[in-house]
Amino acid sequence: MTRHVYLDNNATTMCAPEVVEAMKPYWGELYGNPSSMHSFGGKIRRNVDRARSQVAALLGAQPSEIVFTSGGSESDNLAIRGTLEALAGRKRHIITTRVEHPAVQGVCHYLQKQGYTLTELPVDNDGALDLDQLAQAITPDTAIVSIMWANNETGVLFPMDEIARICKSRRVVLHTDAVQAAGKIPIDLSRLPVDLLSISGHKLHGPKGIGVLYVRKGTKLVPLIIGGHQEGGKRAGTENVTSIVGLGRACELAQQHLGQEMEQVRQMRNRLQEGIQASCKGVRINGKVRLPNTLNVSFEFVEGEAILLLLDELEISASSGSACASGSLEPSHVMRAMGVPFTAAHGSIRFSFSRYNTMQEVDYVVEHLPPIIDRLREMSPFVGGHQWNGTPLPDHAH
């Protein structure tokens, strides 16, 4: 290989060259404030409005329903906390899942400490929800349901059509973190009754530090940031024009590439999965109904961090779902929720593709990954230095 193999696109994506070009003027000569009354600022306002329309087109929304934020985490916080504040304490029950991104999970746990009631729905071994449990969990006190569209670690897709139908029938506000889904699968909010939806620019070849909260017309929301009229009164502060324009262009490109990209990345993902399964023993594929670009695979009796370090020496970038950022030895909350055995959960690696990857890169990984796994297994205390024949061994964690 002559270039770095980047397979960590669920963490962040390369900013598309077309997006960089679109943003360049706003770092220099187009520096006006879009809220100014003069024509110089008015030109900037028109470009912000154009970006808003580009985002809305990708989501099947109205431009007036698009609120620009600093990213997915702020959008998630605004959706959940803004909804609860709008209810002024009249409803104090939150429903989410055990596999949410920390941007949702963290704020829900924080609110639980403030006296709100929290229900975290379980998932099965394939990462799927039991929708009957969702329906049964909703009570007259339920203020909001927040369920991600696609899981960031496994790519598992939740059936948002059915989830939205359940919530609408019970007249409960529905928020979905669609950060991983936007630009990878079709989203049409003109027909799907989701009330609030979060996306993030840097997950779909846009810039970092910019995101969107879609707010369906009529949905009550109290802003987190107060002090100005911007974003329809839902988020105060001078707009991040450069990144807004970049996000708009990224959404336009995502809409253009969506069908072709879905098939292209699915083929690469499947080729990598098949190559790993054919050449490595003790492999578990995590999740069934997944994003086309995501492969989360667990290797029995191997540490994920060790795999990543050896891959990195070969200029292959992937990510591990085996330990949290605090350095805990516990597997990720997603692996635990799915019931992945301890001896496999620690060896979980996520490969995530984009339209900029190639089959040549996949073949490079398939060539070099199996020797890494064999080398690490030879050193594994579980295997004990003996040649492992692939027969499952006892779970030494229990």
Produce a short descriptive summary.
The protein is an alpha/beta fold and 398 residues long. It has 11 helices and 13 strands.
Mean pLDDT: 92
Biggest pleated-sheet summary: 7 strands, mixed
Number of strands: 13
For this structure, the CATH topology of the largest domain is Aspartate Aminotransferase, domain 2
Order of helices and strands: EHHEHEHEHEHEEEHEEHEEHHEH
- What class do helices, strands and sheet pairing give? alpha/beta
Which regions contain 5 or more consecutive residues with pLDDT less than 50? 322-326, 393-398
- The CA-CA distance between the termini, in Å, is 43 Å
Label this structure with key terms:
about 400 residues, alpha/beta, Aspartate Aminotransferase, domain 1, Aspartate Aminotransferase, domain 2, 2 domains, seven-stranded mixed sheet, four-stranded antiparallel sheet, 13 strands, about 40% helix, globular
